[in-house]
Amino acid sequence: MSVKSIVGGAVITMDPDRRIIEDGVVVVEDQHISEVGPASEVRPPRGSRIIDAAGMAVLPGLINCHTHVPQILLRGYAANEGRRVWDWLTNVVHPGLAAYGPGDIRTAARLYSVEAIRSGMTCFVDNEDAWPDDTVGSIGQAIAAYSEAGVRAMVARMMFDEQPEHLGDMIRSLRQKEPQVVHVDNWRPTERLLSDLDRLIRTYNGTAGGRIQVWPSPVGTLVCSDTMFETSRRLARDNGTMWTIHLVQGPAGVENPGPSSTEDLLARGHLDHRLLAGHCVGLSPRDIRILRDADVKGCTQVVSNCFLAMGVAPVPDLLRAGMPLAVGTDDVNCNGTVNLFSDMKTLVLVHRALADDPAALTADQALEMATINGARAVGMEKQIGSIEAGKRADIILVDLGHAQTTPAHHLPSAMVFQTYGNEVDTVLIDGDIVMRNRQLSWLTAAEERSLYRDAAERSAAISARARIPSC
Question: Can you tell me the distance from the alpha carbon of 299 to that of 306, in angstroms, rounded to the nearest whole number?
């Protein structure tokens, strides 16, 4: 048995009582937390490996409930700027992803894992929407990278099989604006998409000691058939996973006239407790009640929604309604970084400004959204999201010995408002140390620098192949 004891830190447990233990001890046996408490009550077992957390905050690993990992190689392009969402998808994202090969996807996944771990992110939902010829093989490259890095990843295979006439007309018009771009047709037959998904689930779900899950991810009501929704629900149920969609209403959603997307999902019988709805933009009070009553989980991507001027989710209203609501970073090329500390701060400030109310959203609520609510959103609240005995040891240590974190009195506020993300010193996932003293366990410093060079070169090559302006 491997035993580790984290001692001397201030433990932000995120347990039901939201205890903060000023001089705490966390004992980890193999993959699980076995004891948590003050140093006066919990002693490190004889022979355990001591992790000194003096001067640090100890908290659950952050959970990113909506992201698109491959797009990390599309960030930094000038072409990302100043576009509405469908212009951005049509002239940047889809052409860029079509220019990827499996090697590009693995490099993107490794780079993402580095940045995630370095900013305290231990778990993420990766909406995989790259379209190389071998979909199963290319996503396998991403999963291999996640397994190597030791992260916990829900790989959600994005799918869409319908294109309404008005959406097709809009896409053709947008393509005409930039004829030099190598445009692509991303729509695929329903049978092929579902066959690929079934193979992915059978091959990879539950691998890496259970850290890898494979989810269905039909994009949304506008572009997905009832068959796709029904099969996604069934596969999630049969395999004990969640499934996820993009729920964007209003002008950014380009939805059909008539009932809202939420009402449409209800009428078509596609809402259930396993569904994680990303974005949640443009929801009415009736939509919120529908989602809550169906026990749907939600996730807001405030930074990307601001980047693309899509509107934002009614976060305070969703929380008041009692809907489990998490936070995500979304595509890296409409966010800029993989950093939930930064996004939590933006989340709170945006909603205070929108409501003209400094109490509209608190630091404590934002931290809940990135930890225990995130665990609920991915269906793992009994395993992760808080530091409690019996849970998986996904734990991060945040060094408070920096100018920006001095003084740090109310620790949830310090985590949300005073951190950059690079204060994360140590990361454990499933009880394994994947970073200690800012040094990754699975990459040497030289290998990390080589990865950065490789990623930059691949990004430039993708831009050239797709003819997307990078600068």
Answer: 15
Contacts of 171 (CB under 8 A, 6+ apart): 86, 90, 163
Pairing of strands 32-38, 20-29: antiparallel
- Residue among 137, 183, 191 at smallest CA distance from 159: 191
183 CB neighbour count, 10 Å cutoff: 20
Q: Which residue has the tokens 């407790």?
A: 273
Q: List, for residues 106-143, the tens digit of each pLDDT value.
A: 999 999 999 999 999 999 999 998 865 677 888 999 99
What would the two tokens of residue 248 be?
């964007």
Region of residue 35 (left: phi > 0; alpha: psi -120 to 50; beta: else): beta
Contact 430, 31 (CB under 8 A): yes
Helical residues (DSSP H) of 119-189, grouped into ranges: 135-149, 165-177
> Of 275, 375, 373, 263, whose CA–CA distance to 315 is shortest?
373
* Contact between 466 and 99 (Cβ < 8 Å): yes
Question: Does the bond joining 314 to the residue before it have cis omega, within 30 degrees of 0?
Answer: no
The pLDDT score that the predictor gives to residue 470 is 86
Q: Residue 298, CB half-sphere, CA atoms under 13 Å: how many?
A: 32
Q: How far is CA 338 from CA 62, 78, 381, in A?
A: 11, 19, 23
pTM of the predicted protein model = 0.97
- Provide the CATH number for the domain formed by 62-377 in this structure: 3.20.20.140
> What would the CATH number be for the domain defined by 3-60+393-439?
2.30.40.10
Is there a shared CATH topology between the 3-60+393-439 domain and the 62-377 domain?
no
**What are 364's two structure tokens?**
């404590």
Tokens of 201: 């689930």
CA-to-CA distance for 321 and 205, rounded, in angstroms? 33
Per-residue pLDDT of 196-217, as tens digits, reads 999 999 999 999 999 999 999 9
Q: Is the Cβ–Cβ distance between 459 and 74 less than 8 Å?
A: yes
